[in-house]
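Hi R.,

As promised on Friday, here is the backbone we talked about, encoded as structure tokens. Could you run it through your design pipeline when you get a chance and send me back a sequence?
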């Protein structure tokens, strides 16, 4: 049995050598000289509806102590929020913000957001970018990172500035204006 193991090991080494020799410092990766980068500025409104018959965000998990926390610490929400051209919910639909956010702070309303902003209109139809960061929801202005993208936003990086346009403190429903700068 030991002889079989040695034979198999030698065979695997011998068959791997031509493959390993095909890699050199010059050809193991392809280098592409990138053209000039594009900076895109976007403005839209995010409609997060927790109430009513057809909410766009629902609680999917919570900690045992979440309801006792003034910040709902430990609550996790799944969202499929419309993105519109103006604060009016009936204005032109530009896309959807899909992902999750959770209450991650015990001393303030601090949400950790992991969202994909996908667009369905104009030249950005089918393109998306990903947002990741802390959203201090009660602050008038907050900034979050853009960490990637698809389509026209492939290899995106940048930032999003969020400002609450309207919020119902009883239901948690909110309309948030976003100004986003994406480098791609």
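Update: got your reply. Pasting your designed sequence below so it's all in one thread:
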């Amino acid at each position: 049995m030991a002889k079989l193991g040695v034979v198999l090991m030698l065979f695997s080494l011998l068959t791997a050598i031509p493959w390993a020799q095909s890699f050199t410092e010059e050809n193991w990766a392809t280098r592409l000289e990138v053209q000039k980068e594009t900076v895109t500025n976007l403005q839209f409104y995010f409609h997060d509806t927790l109430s009513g018959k057809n909410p766009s965000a629902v609680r999917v998990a919570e900690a045992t102590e979440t309801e006792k926390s003034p910040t709902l610490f430990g609550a996790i929400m799944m969202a499929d929020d419309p993105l519109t051209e103006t604060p009016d919910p009936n204005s032109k639909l530009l896309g959807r913000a899909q992902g999750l956010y959770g209450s991650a702070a015990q001393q303030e309303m601090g949400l950790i957001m992991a969202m994909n902003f996908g667009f369905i209109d104009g030249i950005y139809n089918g393109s998306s970018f990903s947002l990741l960061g802390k959203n201090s929801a009660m602050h008038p202005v907050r900034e979050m990172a853009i960490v990637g993208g698809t389509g026209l936003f492939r290899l995106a990086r940048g930032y999003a500035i969020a400002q609450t346009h309207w919020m119902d403190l009883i239901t948690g429903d909110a309309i948030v204006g976003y100004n986003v700068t994406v480098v791609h």
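One thing I noticed while checking it: The longest strand covers residues 93-103.

Thanks again,
M.
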